[in-house]
Amino acid sequence: MRRNQCLRALASRRRDQIVVATMSVLGPWLVHSPSELNMSCYGFMGGTSSLALGLALAQPQRRVWALDGDGSLLMQLGSLATIGGAAPPNLHHFVFKNDAYEFSGGQPIPAAGRVDFAGLAAAAGYVATYRFGEIEEFEGALDGVLAQTGPVLAELAVDVGDEDPPGSQIETNPFPEHVRALRRALLTRTGR
Fold first, then answer.
1. Is pLDDT larger for residue 71 or for residue 168?
2. S-S: 52 plus which of 20, 72, 92, 178, CB 3.0-4.6 Å?
3. Which CATH superfamily is domain 3-188 in?
C-alpha cells in the first residue's frame, strides 16, 4: 500500500475527530485533511501516541486518531501499555509500518520485518487490533474499524518513500502555538 492511499481513505471518513500526526505522515495529512483539529507531533519523535492518549482522556466526547510511524512508535513503545491500561474508548491508533526511519533518511528500524505492532498492542490491552497490507482490504474494513470502541490499533504496511502530494509541508511552528490553536478550536466546537 501507499501511505497516501491510506491517508485519503482516512480523510474521506473524517468528520470532527482530533488527529495527531507524526512527522512523515504530517505534511501529507495536512493536504488530505486540513483542519483546525489537526495536532502536529513534529520535533518530539515518538510522542504521537502519548499526545493522542492525553487528548482522548481530556476530550472523552470526541474521537481522537493517532497517525503514527513505526519508527516513532518504537521510540516510546511503552505508550502501548499506558494506552491499554487507560483504555480510552475514543482512541484509534494507526501505525504506518514501512520498517524505516523515513523522516530521517530511511534507515531501517530495529528488528525491521519482525516487529508486530498489532500483537504488541493486543498484549498491552488494546480492545482490537488489525493488520492491513492491501488498500482494498483497508478501505473495505475501515468503517468497521472506526465504529469499534477503542482503544484500537491498525497496523498499515506501507511502502517506503511515497511521494508527498503537492502543497505538502511540515508545520514547524513551535509546539505551544499548536497547543493554543487546538485549544481555541476545541472551545468553539462541540461534538464527537
1. 71
2. 20
3. Thiamin diphosphate (ThDP)-binding fold, Pyr/PP domains (3.40.50.970)
